[in-house]
TrEMBL record:
Binding site for Ca(2+) 1: D70, G75, D77, S79, E91
UniProt catalytic activity: 2 a phenolic donor + H2O2 = 2 a phenolic radical donor + 2 H2O
Disulfide-linked positions: C38-C119, C71-C76, C125-C320, C204-C230
Protein name: Peroxidase
Predominant localisation class: secreted
Cofactor: Ca(2+); heme b
Swiss-Prot/TrEMBL keywords: Calcium, Disulfide bond, Heme, Hydrogen peroxide, Iron, Metal-binding, Oxidoreductase, Peroxidase, Secreted, Signal
Pfam families: peroxidase (PF00141)
Amino acid sequence: MAEQSPLKPLSSLFLLLLTLLTTTAESRLTTDFYSNSCPRFLDIVRDTISDKQITHPTTAAAVIRLFFHDCFPNGCDASILVSSTAFNVAERDSSINLSLPGDGFDVIVRAKTALELACPQTVSCSDIISVATRDLLVTVGGPYYPVHLGRRDSRTSKASLLADLLPLPSSPMAKTIRQFESRGFTVQEMVALSGAHSIGFSHCKEFVGLVGRNSTGYNPRFAQALKKACSSYPKDPTISVFNDIMTPNKFDNMYFQNIPKGLGLLESDHGLYSDPRTRPFVDLYARDQDRFFKDFAKAMQKLSLYGVKTGRRGEVRRRCDAIN
């Protein structure tokens, strides 16, 4: 009988500990946390995000991306919202976060301003991000999931703490998988979360080099269209392309249907289909939207509980962009 690798029991123990930590975090939070202290909390957030989404339809994608960039590195604590000072470079000014759309930050600030008028220094910015993300997802056709509340905001935000913690579009799939697994997420949960690319856009700089190499992963006509769309990119780095060219403003499973056809935009999209560990889940979600929605909702809820701060471990900021 072959000997069991000593790393496997350690890996299983690590995943178990992360699961227990997530369960503990969830037990400290409740879905009705503000029912007495700020009873109109959900209504205020919903009204704010609805108004913003109507006038700026890319808001939903912007906030979902903001949520991921806040939660994935070091936990959901609104550290992404803090502005830099003369003495500190905050997370939002790290190189990987410079392309985060301004609409995401703006709608959270608007919601916080309205909540401060109704319930001064009661609702945390991290709770606002989590609820706004869920509600905006629903507005563009995505699944609903319960959001547990009671998070506190981080007292620190340092760009230096983000080193190599967020997946890059150009990262090898093996590295991306390791990044997710180190946070207690399975390969299937990683693929489900990648479905957030169903909406939103990416700047040409994220993929133009790959297209230029005539990668066989692209549909030839799609590759030519991308080259044309990005032809002025050197002069205008703001040029971007929808992540899902078929239904760019609707959250659905078309993203997964696109990938096998060579219509994935980013290198990481193609990697999902070329890697045998992730390909079966791409095929599953391409043919079963209900299953994708179910798994995406569960993974988003799990991510919203990752590394949360409660009680004295954090604070409720008066302004989301500044530590109290």
